[in-house]
Amino acid sequence: MSALTDRLDEIKAEGRAALIGYLPVGYPSVEGSIEAMEVMVEAGVDIVEIGLPYSDPVLDGPVIQFAAEQALANGTRIADVFPAATAVAATGAPALVMSYFNPMLQYGVDRFAQDLRSAGGVGVITPDLTPDSGAEWIAAADAHGLDKIFLVAPSSTTERLHLTVNATTGFVYAASLMGVTGERATVGDAAESLVRNTRAAGAPRVCVGLGVTTGAHAAQVARYADGVIVGSALVRCLTENESLDAGLAALRVKVQELAAGVRAVRVRGETL
Question: Which pTM value belongs to this model?
Fold first, then answer.
């Protein structure tokens, strides 16, 4: 058990799914991104994903790519993720990092794990790392008590689901569809089947991301998943507003909409 699983289990005991919000550190500035993460928690996000900007974000859509590019252009460094984790932890929300593996490798995998743990972080989502190629990260995460969150997709075979579930702690990240991150008109039907199959492979907690844009989407996913993950729709609140204050106001409204959607659905699938 960990702070992350404890929080997910507490939320489940409340009769609902968790709302997990993603923002990249460093956009529009390091300080501004931290303030945005704090606003997310105030508005109803239960768990925060802190994105580590990377120069080759092959799995991210245009909104997150733009924010990451701007963050890097502004001089955001790998080490900036740690004060963000500390600030999020101070709100009482578990702080996760979402990172491609290359920046962690450049920083030093064990050093990254140690510094994240010292900063109050609880785990890392590694979208481009699979359990069978992640021995170095798995060892470092285990040594420092961090959750290791790997991804499954609609294309994952039964063998791959079992492999991922066995290596994952915290929750399994179920990508609702094939492709890059981004907002969608619908979440699609594949996500529910993927969650069901991932649970059948032994996963006690499965959270769904990619494509969740509206409160209605959040409610749809909350009927069958342990957590609803939202990224691009939140980042867009900052990219589409010229001032930080306006972006934070839009972010607060969007989170409240998503939180209302999640909280309108009971775990057993009933809408309140």
Answer: 0.93
